[in-house]
Amino acid sequence: MHTGTEAETLLEVLEFGGGGPHVVAIGGGTGLARALGAIRSYAGSIDAIVTVADDGGSSGRLAPSLDIPPPGDIRKCLIALTPEESVWRRLFEYRFTGADVEGHSLGNLIIAALADIEGSFELALRSSEHLLGALGSVIPASPLHLVLEATIDGLPVKGQVNIAVARGSVEHIGVSPADAEASESAVLAIESADQIVLGPGSLYTSVIAALVVPGIVDAVNRADADLVYVTNIVTQDGETLGLDAADHLDALLHMTGMRPPGAIVASDSPVSVDPPLEALAVDGEAIATYGGDLVTADLLDQGAERPSHDTSRLGEVLRGLTET
Hints:
Layout: H1 4-15, E1 22-27, H2 29-39, E2 45-50, H3 57-66, H4 72-80, H5 87-93, H6 106-118, H7 121-132, E3 137-140, E4 147-152, E5 155-158, H8 160-165, E6 170-176, H9 184-191, E7 195-198, H10 203-211, H11 216-222, E8 226-230, H12 245-256, E9 263-267, H13 284-288, E10 293-297, H14 311-322
Parallel strand pairs: 1-2, 1-7, 2-3, 7-8, 8-9, 9-10
Antiparallel strand pairs: 4-5, 4-6
Helix pairs in contact: 2-4, 2-14, 6-7, 9-11, 10-12
């Protein structure tokens, strides 16, 4: 006999690919993983376009030495697209706590090994998806490991980690090398999407970091897909202190050249955080000046350690947007 959770997972697997919309999610980190968990509940096919500028932790150690895109955010997305518990899922989630591999995620090492065995990083991801039984594909925004660059309070700051912790006004975000190009498969996925979902996630070092890869925004602007932006629930220390939802949207549009989203999804759940963080303020009148529809709902995951989106509730909202 299946438990309630097992039955829901089985139903999700059986329904996937059954005529639902093709959804593309763009970003990185835990925010993108949350979005994918929501999208799994209604999409017929899913592509996750992931930033390749992560230079912290295990990814920061592996990517430069092996000349591969950083696997950390990609691994999180692969796991988020995996509905069933398995030995492979546990292996991809495992992190070493001692010896020479201290701090490394085994999943990152598996992806790196598969890239060497298969002869390319893209083939490594296809093999990883097969091993995990992932419902969808994960695509690096670029086939290269890129370096994120910013101008903050008039000063240059280099590297994703440094940008994430720097306090000040972010005036520019870009990547190097400047002649980098988006992955062809990422462009094709975006152009064929029915719905494109941006966020939640770190504004500058996840969402915008993926969009500023040359070719990504051009594809978004060409696509006929409905464009949705999911706002964060709280501000982020070092990136968005003092900014509200309209400020997030303004930075997103002006730093990337992206067309305005048709819908902006925000949580209206009461939330309490320690200063200097704040609940992200959402001014409906300010949001309306960007031309999109503001959609609010109780999206807070009450069981999460820190303010996060409930994937089931977010999935219901995103599904509703495909039906209007």
